[in-house]
Amino acid sequence: MRGNDIAQLRVFLAVLDHGGFRRAAPHLGMTPSAVSQSIRTLEERLGQRLLNRTTRSIAPTEAGQQLRNRITPALAEIAAAEDELLAISDRVTGRVRITAPRVGAEHVLAPRLASFHAAYPGVKVEIVVSETLDDAVAGGFDAGLRLGDSLGLGMRAVPVGGPARMVVVAAPAYLAQRGLPETPEALCQHSCLNFPRPSTGVPWLWEFEQNGQCLQVFVDGPLISTDACVLLRAAIEGAGIAFLFEQDAASSIASGRLQALLTDWTPRFPGFHLYYAGTRLVTPALRAFIDHLTKRRTP
Question: I need a surface site. Which of 69, 86, 249, 291 has the fewest CB within 10 A?
Answer without folding.
Answer: 69
